[in-house]
TrEMBL record:
Segments forming domain Amine oxidase: 12-490
Protein name (record): Amine oxidase domain-containing protein
UniProt cross-references to Pfam families, sorted A to Z: Amino_oxidase
PANTHER family: AMINE OXIDASE DOMAIN-CONTAINING PROTEIN, PHYTOENE DESATURASE
SUPFAM superfamilies: FAD/NAD(P)-binding domain
Length: 504
């Protein structure tokens, strides 16, 4: 079968672009994915996703999601074989959550294409700065009246900023923005710790105010709220569901998806892409195509596209890209630790051990995933798991194994000291380090209009998709936005009207 459009990489960026082109532009799409399954960073394990051995799990995490296991208790073999976690639970490579719950970009796009990606809402957001958890909406309850008024004023002004207007703030750091909008220190501190959490960047001089404004305004535009519910949510049965749904759309529209098909290079003939060279069972195979779309993160694009084919200015921008990185944990427990707040997100800032990181001491976020999203438990499985998260700095911290061990110990120590009976309740723990939480950190200088374009400036039939290309969001929502903008460029059409205004 011949295909006119080849997509290199089956992450959600490649799959959403492919689904739009197959379903709405009647293109014959071929997706080539190097791993044994599609999904990239939204891999899921367990239940209907399959039960890998400890070794397969470790290798798949590393290969598909750039995630490595840094510490487990007990050993990983025992967790997989004796605790049978993949027969009991569905786990992602790390804690994923998506803004605006089921009114996010990929769920609404799937709906427009006749499919469903249900999302379980987080309800309740609890913050602890040392004195116990307080509901986010009550954090300001003990503030002086003037500060509470100022908080409402700053929030109202921010909500009034449209997505287009927010671009003005893309290259302004969060600290400068917060200091400019208010002189009230309580309000400043509130937005600074919230910013560390939503941008996955600890240092407020590194977070982009434009991204902060959009990330906060999107759930509001969707009618959602972090405390009251739906500000964030978990894709039911694991985030891999996103990849499965868009892969299904591609196949139903005549497309093909090949896994275990690593592309060696995109073939260029001067200013035209002519196809790709892919690893085949009998050696390298050449596949011709009229259009080639690359889903690799742009700072890794040189693995398949000669970097010297890009103009110097774009090469420089690609060279400056860096990711938001972090450490995530999965902890198996017999009983919920917060049975009265099962769907909440809990943020402890700072961790009591005061572990210094660039931009401030380490913090801990956690949720009771199987209570929030009961579809993560397989059949009548007993027990639950929690997910934990600490943000790190891309340069240095993520590769410091001693530091990662201190942080994972601090996560467990927090639960031990806060929840009586913890040692009898906890069954297993896996801590992972993720090299790319957000492929391009939401930072001034590399976000907004400085993200690489969806079309090669000199090779007009070579395109790029995913969370590191031109788009105005982070993570999965950002990958979906980049994917739609890429499909627009390929097809010469506008697919954004498939989504409501606030997501375009
Ligand atoms: C631990 C973790 C936590 C996260 N938390 C969140 C969160 O809370 N909220 C959120 O919205 N997002 C989160 N994200 C980010 C989100 O998962 C990504 O933004 C999104 O999945 C990116 O999709 P993508 O298609 O752009 O890239 P990728 O998923 O990286 O896809 C690239 C694909 O290309 C394939 N590939 C690479 N080289 C080749 C080759 N030579 N030939 C063929 N195929 C190739 C890869 O295997 C991969 O499948 C998290 C990510 C991780 C890892």
């Amino acid at each position: 079968m011949s295909h006119d459009t080849i997509i290199v990489g089956g992450g959600i960026g490649g799959l959403i672009t492919g689904a739009l082109l197959a379903a709405k532009d009647r293109r014959s799409v071929l997706v080539l994915e190097k791993e044994n399954a599609v999904g990239g960073r939204v891999m899921s394990f367990g239940g209907h996703h399959g039960s890998p051995s400890a070794e397969e799990y470790r290798n798949t995490l590393r290969g598909a999601a750039n995630v490595r296991i840094v510490h487990t208790e007990p050993g990983l073999d025992e967790i997989v074989d004796d605790h049978k976690i993949f027969d009991r639970f569905i786990l992602d490579p790390g804690w994923h959550t998506v803004g605006a719950t089921n009114r996010n970009r990929f769920s609404l796009l799937a709906k427009a294409l006749g499919k469903s990606i249900p999302v379980a809402p987080q309800i309740g957001f609890y913050f602890d700065s040392g004195a116990g958890f307080v509901d986010l909406k009550d954090v300001s309850a003990t503030w002086p009246e003037a500060s509470r008024r100022e908080h409402r004023r700053v929030a109202a002004e921010r909500v009034a900023i449209s997505p287009a207007e927010s671009a003005r703030y893309d290259h302004i750091d969060l600290l400068s923005y917060v200091n400019m909008v208010t002189e009230d220190q309580l309000v400043r501190d509130y937005y600074l710790w919230l910013g560390r959490f939503v941008l996955a960047l600890n240092d407020p001089t590194e977070g982009s105010a434009g991204e902060f404004i959009r990330t906060n305004n999107m759930p509001v535009a969707a009618g959602m709220h972090l405390s009251h519910g739906g500000g964030n949510g978990e894709v039911c049965r694991g985030f891999k569901t996103i990849a499965d749904v868009f892969a299904e759309i591609i196949r139903e529209n005549g497309g093909e998806i090949r896994t275990g098909a690593a592309v060696r290079q995109v073939l260029l003939d001067r200013n035209r892409a002519t196809g790709v060279e892919v690893e085949g069972p009998a050696g390298p195979e050449r596949i011709d195509a009229e259009t080639v779309i690359v889903n690799l993160p742009m700072d890794a694009v040189g693995k398949v596209v000669p970097i010297e084919s890009f103009p110097a200015e774009l090469r420089e921008r690609i060279g400056k890209l860096y990711s938001a990185v972090g450490m995530t944990g999965f902890i198996g427990v017999k009983e919920l630790i917060e049975p009265d707040r099962p769907t909440g997100v809990f943020l402890v800032d700072p961790l009591p051990q005061h572990i210094p990181l660039k931009g401030g001491d380490a913090w801990l976020a956690f949720e009771q995933t199987t209570a929030l999203d009961p579809t993560r438990r397989v059949g009548a499985a007993e027990g639950h798991y929690l997910q934990t998260w600490t943000v790190l700095h891309a340069k240095g911290e993520a590769t410091d194994d001693d530091l990662l061990r201190r942080i994972s110990d601090a996560h467990l120590e927090f639960f031990r000291s806060r929840y009586p009976g913890w040692d009898d309740n906890v069954e297993w723990a896996i801590f992972t380090q993720a090299d790319r939480i957000y492929g391009a950190a939401p930072a001034p200088g590399i976000g907004g209009d400085r993200r690489p374009p969806v079309q090669h400036p000199l090779v007009s039939n070579l395109f790029f998709t995913g969370d590191t290309v031109t788009q105005t969001d982070v993570g999965t929502n950002g990958a979906a936005h980049g994917a739609i903008l890429c499909a627009n460029a390929v097809a010469g059409r506008d697919f954004l009207p498939l989504l409501p205004d606030y997501l375009r």
